[in-house]
Amino acid sequence: MMKPSEFDQLTKSVWSPYLENDLGFSFEDGAFFREMPDGTRHVILLDFDVRKAKTFRIIIGFNSAIISPGISPVEAGVFGVRYLDESGFCDVPKNLSCFNQDSARASLVKTLPVVKDVVTPWFEDHQTVPAIAELVEESHPFIKGRLLLQANRRDEARRYFLQHEKYLRAQPQTDVVSQGLQVTTELLSLCG
Predict the structure, then answer these.
(1) Regarding beta strands 88-90 and 40-48, do their DSSP bridges make them parallel or antiparallel, or are they unpaired?
(2) Cα-Cα-Cα-Cα dihedral of 138, 191, 66, 176, to 10°?
(3) Rounded to an integer, what distance in angstroms lies between the CA atom of residue 47 and that of residue 39?
(4) What distance in Å separates the CA atoms of residue 148 and residue 130, rounded to the nearest whole number?
(5) CB-based contacts of 129, cutoff 8 Å, min separation 6
(6) Pick from 20, 82, 69: which is nearest to 40 by CA?
(7) Under a CB-based contact definition with an 8 Å cutoff, are residues 163 and 141 in contact?
(8) Chain-wide mean pLDDT for the chain?
(9) What's the pLDDT at 2?
(10) Is there a contact between 172 and 160 (Cβ–Cβ < 8 Å)?
(11) Please, where are the H alpha helices in the chain?
């Protein structure tokens, strides 16, 4: 059985020459990420199943210091999620084999061309805040609103902040919910 640290080391040996050396990604705790000039990040998360230590999933998406200032790129989560398998993007997460060094290496080697041919062009098409805002799931109105506000699309941002505010008002009132309402109200005021 593989350990997470072994899997990370193997991942770096197979993928880092391309992602880190050629494209400027960084690697930390099972994730490759690249800071974009506008405050967003491209993220490739290799989700190692620590419980079974036999499979991993590849999750492609974004996060941003705009949404989570002061949070590390690895801890900031991922939105605009796409899953990857050996043939390209897929609708549901696909478990890839990593029950030992050989199976993990084979899975990583098989998926690297897909990263080059599918993921890299997709990231190239999504390098700006407006392009990334379009990919944010409707189930994340705060994130979508925050990015749209950053992109100066105030009317759209307002609509998503109002949706988020409605959700928060329906929750039991706790300190966290009250703080969320305060932040949302402040952001709504910026929408005009």
Answers:
(1) unpaired
(2) -70
(3) 24
(4) 7
(5) 38, 39, 40, 66, 147, 150, 151
(6) 69
(7) yes
(8) 94
(9) 84
(10) no
(11) 4-16, 101-114, 120-125, 129-135, 141-150, 154-169, 175-190
pLDDT, one tens digit per residue, over 86-124 is: 999 998 999 999 999 999 999 999 999 999 999 999 999
pTM: 0.90
Question: Mean per-residue pLDDT for 164-186?
Answer: 96
Residue whose structure tokens are 């991993």: 56
**Burial degree of 20 (CB within 10 A; 0-12, 13-18, 19+):** middle
Place of tokens 């409707």: 138
Both structure tokens of 180: 């969320």
* Cα 34 from Cα 81, distance rounded (Å): 16
